Amino acid sequence: MAKRPQTLTPSWLLTEHVGVAACATPASRTQWSVPLYRDEAIVLRSHKLGEADRIVTLLTRQHGRVRAVAKGVRKTSSRIGARLEPFSHVDVQFYEGRNLDNISQVETIDPHGAALAQDYGRWTTAHAMVETAERLTPVEREPSVQQYVLLLSGLRSLVSGDHDAPLILDSYLLRSLSIAGWSPSFDECARCGVAGPHRAFSVAGGGMVCSGCRAPGAAAPSPPAVALLAALLSGDWAVADASEVRERREASGLVAAFLQWHLERGLRSLPLVDRDDRKLGS
Questions:
Q1: Residue 60 in contact with residue 66, Cβ under 8 Å?
Q2: C-alpha to C-alpha distance for 15 and 230, rounded to whole angstroms
Q3: Domain co-membership, 163 together with 228
Q4: Is there a single domain that holds both residue 88 and residue 152?
Q5: Do 103 and 181 have their domain in common?
Q6: Which of the listed residues 84, 110, 136 is the one where a domain comes to its end?
Q7: Quick one: 103 and 146 in the same domain?
Q8: Is the CB of residue 202 less than 8 Å from the CB of residue 215?
Q9: How high is the pLDDT of residue 265?
Q10: Strand 64-70 with 101-110, pairing
Q11: Alpha carbon of 48 to those of 80, 109, 200, 268: distances in Å?
Q12: Rounded to an integer, what distance in angstroms lies between the CA atom of residue 169 and that of residue 155?
């Protein structure tokens, strides 16, 4: 008696209706399995895709900067849309796609955005910080644990309100540039290494320079402003918190110029940062 030929269910039917993992044989399950990975992340920004989706940019702990599609998050019925707001610290599961990865699960660790939204100055400061983080991680999926930890620490400091927002921002900018390989020198000459103190600050030269290395157009910051810059870079908050408004203005201008030089163009969010002097020291 002849054997009855085996009927094979088309793979597309399995995928569409009941899923590959549930119905495929062990061999085909390996063939059709989707690579998954999970990581902690900070949401940097997002923009619309189609009618209901978003492309979300995240800075992850182990996988660097990742751009992924979050499907259906703009629908009112979405359970994860609110978890992918900017500044949120989340635990995310991704599955790899052909062009962009896709977000399948999101768990909130700390929703920083809700707290930051209560203060315009801290909200605009956070925007400048996440834009900096994105600019300083230009290669997708390249791990940058130090940038991730620094950004997370900066956002937590903004939420706690332990220090004035402009000080947190300038400290974050200096440290993130240092991690990227552009650490400014505030003690010895950035060009020849001779011990300071020095009176001239060269953006192109990498920090304070001696009289012999001083180039035309170099700034001449006051000694208290230089001391503040050094404190912000090293994390000496006792010195930073005790600084005067004039010193902070001077230091912020130098930090912005130093940042723009190395990024080759300024941050779009930096001019919007609220640096209301009446809030300093509050």
A1: yes
A2: 59
A3: yes
A4: no
A5: no
A6: 110
A7: no
A8: yes
A9: 83
A10: parallel
A11: 15, 24, 46, 19
A12: 10
Whole-model pTM: value is: 0.84
Going by pLDDT thresholds of 50, 70 and 90, the confidence category of residue 277 is low
In tens, the pLDDT along 28-43 reads 444 456 689 999 999 9
Phi and psi torsions of 45, nearest 5°: -170, 175
- Determine the Cα–Cα distance for residues 111 and 160; give it in Å rounded to an integer: 13
Cα torsion 210, 212, 218, 219 to 10°: value is 30
> What's the CATH code of the domain at 59?
2.40.50.140
Structure tokens at 47: 């923009």
pLDDT at 227 over 90: yes
Helices 120-135 and 145-160 meet at what angle, rounded to 10?
Answer: 180
CATH number of the domain to which 132 belongs = 1.20.1440.120
Beta bridge partners of residue 132, listed in sequence order: none
Examine the domain organization and report whether 85 and 121 are in the same domain. no
Helices (H), 57-191: 112-116, 120-135, 145-160, 165-179
* φ and ψ at residue 273, rounded to 5 degrees: -65, 130
Give the position of tokens 């010895």. Answer: 188
The tens digit of pLDDT for each residue in 66-113 reads: 999 998 888 877 888 889 999 999 999 999 888 899 999 999 999 998
